[in-house]
Amino acid sequence: MSDTEQLPAWCPGDGWCSITATASLVGKKWHPVIIHRLLHHGPLGFNALQEEVDGISSKVLSESLDDLEEKRVVSRTIVSEKPVRVEYALTELGESLEPVVTALAEWGEQHLEPVDEEAASVV
Amino acid sequence: MSDTEQLPAWCPGDGWCSITATASLVGKKWHPVIIHRLLHHGPLGFNALQEEVDGISSKVLSESLDDLEEKRVVSRTIVSEKPVRVEYALTELGESLEPVVTALAEWGEQHLEPVDEEAASVV
DNA sequence: ATAGCCAGTTACGTTACCGTAAGCGGGTCA
DNA sequence: TGACCCGCTTACGGTAACGTAACTGGCTAT
Predict the structure, then answer these.
(1) 3-state helix, strand, coil in chain A (%, to 5)
(2) Does B44-108 carry CATH code 1.10.10.10?
(3) Which of A74, A17, A7 is CA-nearest to residue B40?
(4) How, if at all, do strands B74-79 and A74-79 pair?
(5) Preferred mutation among B104, B106, B110, B112 to probe A, highest tally of A CBs within 10 A
(6) CA-CA distances (angstroms) from residue A87 to A41, A45, A80, B36?
(7) Nearest to B25 by CA among A62, A34, A105, A66
């Protein structure tokens, strides 16, 4: 590490930061899980997705989907069959997040699973 | 995608989720940036780190470092020279986050930079 | 003694995010 | 017609995260 080290441009000093920007997309509690489920289960309806995510409320799921749709990560397709169906799927942009979500998942797998937060130090 | 598809175990239905767990570490606004700076600039003092991160306040930096220290991601070393110095560095666990932070950074680089949020749709 | 750097802390306020509970409009099925 | 599924929305509340501003305390250099 010398003094004149050039940073890879993705850490500028002028406001924008690719890390923060990406984190604001994937850093919400449910966002990465939703994306992961969509990656591995193809298009899903609202209720199916809710069951898939396990723990999320309809309200939060709805909000998250709105957010992700606005950010062009998921697409909402109304399938006009008799019972009005809706299908949520990843856009290309959303699918491109696969490495990111995978990185999150694998790191958690490898470094976080043997969690002993309460058994660790205090008391 | 068949029906009996086995998920890689890192997306259980029973509460714990490696993705969410990791996101709770790296998903905060400043956490990944701090880690990134520490990855690329070696150990830094408080003020040096604050200047490096650019935009963070001393309070938030302090809080973030407390959090990251508690989670064994960064270490705080008091270098007891005459002017009391402190050095923040990554632990092994912290360094292992490199792929995750890199994934965030690179995705942002490749998919988010040409941002035209305001120029896009409305008005 | 005054000024300045380093490493924070405290007080205070705002916004974002998450969660519960309930309800609603439309359709299907019996 | 009533019971039930689907796809949400609304109302309400709490906590956590973030932000600003000011201030502290130890040490140093002048």
Answers:
(1) 50, 10, 40
(2) yes
(3) A7
(4) unpaired
(5) B104
(6) 12, 5, 10, 37
(7) A105
Residue B6 has a pLDDT of 47
The B 44-73 residues near strand C by Cβ under 7 Å are 45-48, 58-59, 62, 66
Tens-digit pLDDT profile for residues B18-38: 999 999 999 999 999 999 999
Are residues B94 and B73 in contact, defined by beta-carbon separation less than 8 angstroms? Answer: yes
Distance in angstroms (rounded) separating the CA atoms of residues A94 and B22: 19
> Would you kindly state where each structural domain of chain B is located, as residue ranges?
44-108
Q: Is the pLDDT of residue A55 over 80?
A: yes
Please, are residues B103 and A103 in contact by the beta-carbon 8 Å criterion? yes
Strand partners, A52: none
Q: Which CATH class is domain A18-100?
A: mainly alpha
Q: Identify the helix (H) or strand (E) that includes residue A75.
A: strand A74-79
- pLDDT computed for residue A20 by the predictor: 94
Cα of A88 to nearest chain B Cα, Å: 16
User: How many Å lie between the alpha carbon of A81 and the closest alpha carbon of chain B?
Assistant: 23
Which helix H or strand E contains A9, and what residues bound it?
A: none
